[in-house]
Amino acid sequence: MHKTRLFRFVAIVFFGVLIFGLIAMAAIRQWRTIYRSPLATPSKAAITENCEWPCTVSVTAEMLQPSGPTPSETSVPTNTETPLIQCTPPPCDLAAGEGYFCPDVCPGGCGTICATATPAAICSPPPCGPYDAIVCPHGDCPGGCGLICITPQAVCTPPLCAIGTNEAYFCPEVCPGGCGTICATYTPTPEN
Question: Which residues have a Cβ under 8 Å from the Cβ of 111 and sit 6 or more positions away?
């Protein structure tokens, strides 16, 4: 029984080493293929194309031409940069107040349009009292439009009344925000 286990262990180790060796040989062969390629010299080519509206698309690409003998094995191609697209903007009448505007995304200026700027509304702040505060109730008041006046309300801490007695908080007159509140003892009134 021990011989069977030993044989299985040796067989598993042998196949593991064999598979590892095959993978390593394939990686070395591919590495040699990549680095055996001849030196290359760059040459540039430019392509110009006209768009539907007055727009010129210029594409500049860099191509590699081999300067040595052609390799006998296939080499792995390398990634090159994507050429940039560039467009000529439309003619805008800058003297009449037109300007260049991109409604969304305009890579290389493509999609740029002429637009006339609309002036933003400007509003006067509302007349408020000396202790009032000017606020924007909804968080966005462009040009001061939509501002309102609010009067700050005082908030006071009431006095400490005795716990476990008949004392209660009492406001003798007007007590905005709890200011002016006192502790009073409840006295029942005689019923008629």
Answer: 87, 102, 103, 104, 105
